[in-house]
Amino acid sequence: MDALSPSLGNIDISKLSTADKQALQQFVMNEGQKARIQSSIHALTDTCFRKCIPMGVVKSGKLDRYEEPCMRQCVDRFLDANLVVLRELERLRQ
């Protein structure tokens, strides 16, 4: 059920106050943002894992001396790329 539907489960949204509707809308937006962040982290983890862990198996529950730096560098590049994109979006907003 989406945030704009007239009812939410057994709650009639049309009877909520304006402030409550705004709070609910903000909550839904925040939850959507959390979901997008979690999805991004999942994609990062998956990409770096496939790139750095041969055969997709971590031996002895630890990354070896080659896998750990690979994972670290992969994550660092992902974060660097995100910062570049965010800075450019911020620049375009101004």
From TrEMBL:
Gene Ontology process terms (BP): protein transport
Pfam families: zf-Tim10_DDP
Chain segments annotated as coiled-coil in the UniProt record: none
Keywords, sorted A to Z: Chaperone, Disulfide bond, Membrane, Mitochondrion, Mitochondrion inner membrane, Protein transport, Translocation, Transport
Cellular location(s): Mitochondrion inner membrane
Keyword DNA damage set for record: no
InterPro entries from the UniProt entry: Tim10-like, Tim10-like_dom_sf
Domain Tim10-like as annotated: residue spans: 26-90
GO CC field: mitochondrial inner membrane
Domain of life: Eukaryota
Bilayer topology annotation: Peripheral membrane protein
Role: Mitochondrial intermembrane chaperone that participates in the import and insertion of some multi-pass transmembrane proteins into the mitochondrial inner membrane. Also required for the transfer of beta-barrel precursors from the TOM complex to the sorting and assembly machinery (SAM complex) of the outer membrane. Acts as a chaperone-like protein that protects the hydrophobic precursors from aggregation and guide them through the mitochondrial intermembrane space.
Subunit-structure text: Heterohexamer.
Comment field on protein domains: The twin CX3C motif contains 4 conserved Cys residues that form 2 disulfide bonds in the mitochondrial intermembrane space.
Protein name: Mitochondrial import inner membrane translocase subunit
